Amino acid sequence: GKVAKGWEKKADKKIERAAVLGAGIMGGGIAYQSAYKGVPIKMKDIAQDGIDLGLKHANQLLSKLVERGRLTAGKMGEVLNRIEPTLSYDGFDDVDVVVEAVVENPKVKHSVLKEVEGKVTEDTVIATNTSTISIDHLAEPLERPENFLGMHFFNPVHKMPLVEVIRGEKTSEKAIARVVAYANKMGKKAIVVRDCPGFLVNRVLFPYFAGFSMLVRDGADFQEIDKVMERWGWPMGPAYLMDVVGIDTGVHAEKVMAEGFPDRMGKSFTAASDVMYEAKRYGQKNDKGFYNYE
Ligand code: NAD
What we know:
Layout: E1 2-3, E2 18-21, H1 25-36, E3 41-44, H2 48-67, H3 73-81, E4 83-86, E5 97-100, H4 106-117, E6 125-128, H5 135-139, E7 148-152, E8 162-167, H6 173-185, E9 189-194, H7 201-217, H8 222-232, H9 238-245, H10 247-260, H11 271-278
Parallel strand pairs: 2-3, 2-5, 3-4, 5-6, 6-7, 8-9
Antiparallel strand pairs: 1-9, 7-8
Helix pairs in contact: 1-2, 2-3, 10-11
């Protein structure tokens, strides 16, 4: 990977209008951050519940800023007005960039990406926020793979400074430059990396999760592991981090990593999150994961 210096200068235009597909943990966060930094964004989901959650998330973050005196109520209204919640593709022919943030499932992503490609112009850049799935694989059904790439935010979006911009085999320089410029506009630091399952950060993070899982399988108490890692200096331990990420999302991503690196990330490493997933304990998103949040 290379730090994305110089890319922004190559951008052919400013991003004036954006759209995000999926209003979940990540989509809601991306909509908030874009709106907060001044770029209007359509936030599309297939479920009204999803949209309500995304808007609630933005409202909570903004209300905190108002309480702390860092934002006026008027400005809060302006930011919220820049998020346009929708269940349809109306107006998608008028956006410069679309960020796809639906579930981490290659089949669902293939169908959503193909669908949105039919709704935007030939100039629109389509980015995916996938955590792990190869960009070249996701590009397979697309007619304009040159307009497609990865734009990988981290959770929580408003706090985490890094964005991985992932270049597929056919991605154009225009697409990279535009997405780097958009990331910068959102106050993030972009790095441009090559394509492979997990990209850069998750190739470091998932072996760490696998190490955690093996310790639990060997009989360690997950709360003790969390305490130790916090004492060591990390902001949170692996079990708590999995709850924040979403166990369901983590399990899907682990599967992609196990398939991508079968000799290093085999199935037996993922035991801890699999048990949680089968018990439908998805983490903070449904109030129960390794810990209870009710
Ligand atoms: P989530 O489950 O919180 O949200 C997914 C949303 O997508 C839901 O609201 C769902 O209704 C919606 N959706 C499903 N199909 C759709 C469709 N066809 N069109 C529009 N919306 C649709 O998931 P998330 O954690 O936000 O993850 C989204 C993506 O971001 C995944 O690819 C994930 O790997 C990636 N990601 C997640 C994290 C994390 O920490 N959670 C971090 C980085 C990247």
